[in-house]
Amino acid sequence: MNTILQSLMQEVTAIVSGNVAPHVGIPVTAAAVRQHLSQYTFKEPVPLEVVLEDVVQMMRTWNLQMTHPRYLGLFNPATTLASVVAETLVALYNPQLAAWSHAPAANEIERHTLHYVGTTLGFPAAQLAASFTSGGSEANLTAMLAAMASHFPHYLEKGLMQLGTQPVFYVSEYAHNSFDKICKNIGIGANAMRVIPADDQLKMDVSALQAQIAKDLANQCTPFMVVGTAGTTAAGIIDPLPELAELCKKQHIWFHVDAAWAGAIVFSEKLKPLLKGIELADSVTMDAHKWFSVSFGAGMFFCRHKAVISHMFSVRADYMPKSEQDISDPYTSTLQWTRRFMGLKLFMTLAESGESAFSRLLENQTSLGDYFRRQLLERGWKISNSTPLPVVCFTHRAIESREVSITGMLHQIYQEANLWISAVSTSQTQKVFRACITNYHTTEKDIDFVVRELEKLLQHQLAVKAN
Ligand SMILES: *Cc1c(COP(=O)(O)O)cnc(C)c1O
Predict the structure, then answer these.
(1) Within this chain, do residues 100 and 245 fall inside the same structural domain, yes or no?
(2) pLDDT in tens, 215-264
(3) Is the CB of 77 under 6 A from ligand 1?
(4) CA of residue 379 relative to chain centroid, distance
(5) Of 77, 109, 383, 452, which has the fewest beta carbons less than 10 angstroms from its beta carbon?
(6) Measured from the CA of 138, which atom of ligand 1 is nearest?
(7) Contact yes or no for 390/236 (Cβ under 8 A)
């Protein structure tokens, strides 16, 4: 057993200190991985140290390395050591959080952490209902259900058939696609989602939203929710939250803010003003497993209507242990029943770093984004989005004129596997590159490397074209 724990510790030390595989991730086919796995027939036992070594090898070679400082990718973090320690403890003790009385320490640690984050967001502690979720998608689903339950008083008892109206809700064209899935599956239908165009800053166009609401009301539809995104996945854009909040208040519509990634900046005095208006939301989604750099999965759902939430999830189950009065059991206040101790990694991460070190980290990544933009601009690249956050969308004249293709360049980047970026399209632009500074190990040197590589590949493609 000792050797197993030692090998595990070696790997933890290597990864957490940023000493990762030289490559960000080599492309592999499903057939190759399946061929390798076919040796596991589960007929005969294999010693754990052998399995461990093999799994480490597979993880290092056949996965994109989120922990690599030049993974400038989607919102997937390199995790903190505190996360790794926390996850180990969770697996070790395996506390069941469903009933408070089964896991008082774990439940109170989550409650303490959620109250800290929720009150930092600006929600009043007395009305706050908050829970950890599997991710942003579950938090958005919870928000949508809460908005329905709140807007249609008989919905929980009588269901959709008795509504007598078509419920509709509003997202910007850059909202996360989890809302497409949610509305298809909760019975209101995909057509219930009104996609509001963005303005030239890629923010939800409030006057277009107003016009659509008026049109829906005139057509006997019932608007019940507006979703503002704080940090769009494509371009890191923050919708005009104060204006959306005001409009929702006037129209009696639930205001949800999806701040899955950028919500973390409430912990930076410098960046927090960008989220102005979030404190007026009825509910908020945040993901600890994005910019807080804790491991998957840890989403968070915050709501200022405790009574709505307890009405939605209350059940009587005689086999469940009873808790003291005034303590709500998570199985009666969230979608999940068996509940994993998801919050420990955020608790330990925040406790270890402290607020000021954590905010410095966010600000440092934000400055790296600015540094990246400057380097690109100096070399004749063009920046396609306007955000203070470290999501950099960019292109080049040679790409716009179609002399060079983004797809071709990306193919080359993925083959060489020295860095990882992606591409997005916006309604305002053709396909552009997208890079997000998402790893706390990333430095200016990494950015310099990326810019040099991009230059090299661009020149190479231009040369190929010329020949
Ligand atoms: C990532 C993301 C989601 C989805 O969250 P998951 O944790 O992946 O389920 C939702 N909204 C936004 C804005 C996101 O960035």
Answers:
(1) yes
(2) 999 999 999 999 999 999 999 999 999 999 999 999 999 999 999 999 99
(3) no
(4) 32
(5) 452
(6) 9
(7) yes
